[in-house]
Design a protein that fits this description.
- There is one protein chain.
- This protein has about 280 residues and is an alpha+beta fold.
- It has two domains: about 50-190, Periplasmic binding protein-like II (D-Maltodextrin-Binding Protein, domain 2); about 195-265, ACT domain (Alpha-Beta Plaits, 2-Layer Sandwich), CATH 3.30.70.
- Helix content is about 40%, strand content about 20%.
- The protein contains nine helices and nine strands.
- The protein has a five-stranded mixed sheet, with helices on both faces. It has a four-stranded antiparallel sheet with strand order 7-8-6-9.
- The structure holds prephenic acid (PRE).
- Prephenic acid binds near residues 50, 55, 83, 86 and 90.
Length: about 280
């Protein structure tokens, strides 16, 4: 015998039940916040509650286990809002972004990754973002990886600030907040940041196209150049000495080297997020 067809009321009852369960789970998740605060205060941890290494791992796991009708973009953005708001409730912070990389794109990055509860403040350029975070190192600054102007030299001179993450945590075709962005923050708690990729600033002498190619041959990446300075992304497994030796063979030298932060290895999936 055929089952009688479900009515719209039946389906809405199901949706109401699931919504109530999800809400109850969110309330239960929220009840952990006081314990998180207590544990973090009771250990060596202090300052910002942002733990980018943990978040990169969580976002990868979320996207890996996702299945079903709901687009990946939706699931990722829901969890970004949950996690960022939990960070905010533990210790309030603001996010600063630069309009110079495209105000709308930067705002999208901020809202997608940090939601609407965390205040977003727009500045003219990367230098102004760094100045704002220097004033309150519990805040986070967003700077496009491709931003020009040599902003990273400011971090080389200020050891209290560093790059602590790179967004998006999981890259994919058509990501709704795709603008590659560094997150700048105050000195992170021990173990809070990933160091799969370390960022090196150096003055250079004898730099040439051959030096640029050599950086790639060694397995690193020149992210930017400004006057005689260079910003290089160096995977953890590549020793600085190897880079220096390779560059010496191309006639270039690194001087006044400074590490300005690190982030998790870039991770891509080829699934489009909207389907
Ligand atoms: O795991 C932590 O340290 C938390 O504070 C929890 C949590 C989360 O909501 O899952 C929030 C902030 C951190 O950046 C990472 C994760």
């Amino acid at each position: 015998m055929n089952r009688p067809m479900e009515t719209l009321d039946d389906l809405r009852r199901d949706i109401d039940r699931i919504d109530a369960e999800m809400h109850a789970l969110l309330i239960e998740r929220g009840s952990i916040i006081d314990r998180l605060i207590a544990v973090k205060q009771g250990s060596t941890e202090s300052g910002s509650a942002f733990r980018p290494k943990r978040e990169a791992d969580m976002m990868r796991a979320l996207l890996a286990r996702h299945t079903g009708h709901l687009p990946l973009d939706t699931v990722e953005s829901i969890w970004r809002v949950i996690i960022s708001t939990f960070t905010y409730v533990q210790a309030p912070y603001r996010v600063h972004g630069a309009a110079s990389g495209g105000a709308a794109a930067e705002r999208d990055v901020a809202r997608f990754h940090f939601g609407f509860t965390v205040p977003y403040i727009e500045h003219s350029d990367a230098e102004a973002v760094i100045a704002a975070v220097a004033e309150d190192p519990r805040d986070l600054g967003l700077i496009p990886v491709a931003a020009d102007g040599g902003w990273w030299r400011m971090l080389a001179r200020n050891s209290a600030l560093q790059v602590i993450a790179r967004l998006p945590f999981v890259e994919r075709p058509g990501h709704p907040a795709a603008l590659a962005t560094f997150v700048v923050g105050g000195t992170p708690a021990p173990g809070a940041t990933a160091d799969d990729v370390r960022l090196l600033v150096a003055e250079t002498s004898g730099w040439s196209a051959a030096a640029n190619s050599m950086v790639a041959v060694v397995g690193a990446e020149v992210l930017a150049r400004h006057d005689t300075a260079v910003l290089i992304a160096l995977p953890r497994e590549i020793e600085l000495k190897r880079l220096e030796d390779g560059l010496a063979a191309s006639g270039a030298q690194l001087e006044d080297t400074a590490w300005i932060g690190s982030h998790a290895a870039r991770h891509s999936v080829d699934t489009a997020g909207a389907s």
